Structures are given as structure tokens and as C-alpha cells.
């Protein structure tokens, strides 16, 4: 095709003008990332050592309650509003129904108290699911070879109650049973915990990217089969909107999409559709994948951290759970 006029000797529109110096880039940035956007997941354990490195997650340690309290102080100093606790308990206390999950003197209640004593001003979020406490590694109760939905709800509601009672600010069901948010909300209301927040893992996909976490919490060896009868199929997007709608109707205050980076389309759809605080979890496998490249010198760690975390904000996240949280907060000048 020939143009009816000769091309101008210069472009009239030059988007590069808005990129030409740091100050103008800052001035026109559409989104921002600050330490207040971060939630720091901590793996805690009931062993005697204060810290044990997790081999599949370089830079992440399993922490004693005392070390978790120190991490919480560090988070507060860095401007990170909330930590999230995930338990590694000794295999000897695991059983079919995850009895340890509802022990009022168990690891998580201990950690909540240690953190709140040391650091009353930090938000504490806890994971509601049985997998860290069951000898089969599933998030619910197993009947035959099926995860029994309704029998699991009672256990999960009791677990959330125990956590709230110990001082958790935010309970976060990650189990994907039907009706869990309602069961948990009813248990909280009936026991006077009217202000305990629920952040539901509303759109949680059955994912290969949880592998390193299952090592970290010691549930990998236990797990029989997979979690595909309760966690979502990664082929589906509309179904995520249905899950989120149900969780909000059942009393969730905030929702989460998980994993993170491969699911930013879901984050965008959820945040645009519901306009409720929407979070994403940059999970263990995403962390491990990046750390493995960094270790080989293939990826610039600092730049990759900020770029990936910023991507979550651009997609519509109110905040991000990331094992990089303290490092990112420091990079952001905290
Ligand atoms: C358990 C739970 C999982 C994660 C958080 N809570 C794993 C799973 O569903 O198997 C994964 C976190 C991560 O990979 O960083 N309900």
C-alpha cells in the first residue's frame, strides 16, 4: 500500500517522552508498590532449634515461636502490615483427622501468642486447613479414599476458632471445601469473634507450584494422591468468579488467588468484578524457581523481585503474600 502523502520526517506522537527521565517515569506511574502491600509468610516449627533452613526454599527457614516473634518485629520495622503463619509439626502428632490442628496449646496458638506479646501492632494471619496435621497430607478429613466435605467443615471451623481465640486477626481458609467460609464465620460469630477477619483462598488452584512448601511443612511425604477433587482446575477462569462470589456471600472480608504469577488474569477478573480487597500468593514454587535462576546468575534477584511484585499490583491486587517480603521492603527503601 502506498500512502497518499509522504511520511512525516519525524513521529508526531512520541510515547518515549514520558519515559525520558526517572522523575517523569515516577510522575506518570500508574501503580505503586510499598511495604504496606506485602504479607510475609513464615514457616514455624515445634522443634528445638530456632531456625532450620528449608532446602527447597533457599533463604527461608523454619522458625521457632521465639524466632517468629523476632521476624514479626523485623516485619513491623520494615512497614510490612501482616505476617502469615504456616506450621511444620512433628510427624508423631499427625493422624487421620488432624487432631493437632485444634489443640489450643499447639504450635500455632503458641506462635500467635509469642508474636502478639512481642509485637502487638502487627497483623497475624493463620492458615485454616488440616494438611499440616494429617497423616495423609490432605486438607480435609479422609473417608475411604474421598475427602469428606461436611465432616471437614466441623474440623476447620474448630481450627479457626482456636486460632481466633489465641489472638489471630485474620483466619485464612486454604482448604477449598464447599461451605467452609460460612462454617467458619458462624463459629466465630457464635463465640463472640465478630471482628475476626476472614481472608479466603477463594480461587485456589491444584498446582505444581506448592511442591517446595509441602517440603517446608513436611506434608509432601504424607500426601496420598493429589488435591484435584477440591482445589480448582487450572483450565478454569469463570469458576474462580463463582468461588469468590460464594465466599463473599458466606462472610469473607478479603479474597485470594493462588498461585500468583501464572494466574494474574484471574486476579484482574476478580478485582474488577467484585471490588473487594483481592490478594495473591506468590507461592513457594514461584519463589524457588526465581531463587534457582538467581543462584545460577541467570536472573538479577532485586530487579526480578520488584518486577514480579509490581505485576501483582498492576493486575489489581490490594497486596501480595511473598517469601520475598522482607527483601522487597528493603529494596523499597524501608
Ligand atoms: C495448605 C496450603 C498450601 C499452601 C498454603 N497452604 C499447599 C497446598 O494446598 O498443598 C501453599 C503455599 C506455598 O506453596 O507457598 N492448605
TrEMBL record:
Enzyme class at the top of the EC tree: lyase
Domain of life, per lineage: Bacteria
GO cellular component annotations of the record: cytosol
Catalytic activity of the protein: 2 5-aminolevulinate = porphobilinogen + 2 H2O + H(+)
Pfam families to which the protein is assigned, alphabetical: ALAD
Entry binding sites for Mg(2+): 243
GO BP terms: protoporphyrinogen IX biosynthetic process
Residues annotated as the enzyme's active site: 204, 258
InterPro entries: ALAD (IPR001731), ALAD_AS (IPR030656), Aldolase_TIM (IPR013785)
First and last residue of the signal peptide: none
The entry's keywords: Heme biosynthesis, Lyase, Magnesium, Metal-binding, Porphyrin biosynthesis
Annotated EC: 4.2.1.24
Subunit structure, interactors included: Homooctamer.
PANTHER family named among the record's database cross-references: DELTA-AMINOLEVULINIC ACID DEHYDRATASE
Family: Belongs to the ALAD family.
Protein name per Swiss-Prot or TrEMBL: Delta-aminolevulinic acid dehydratase
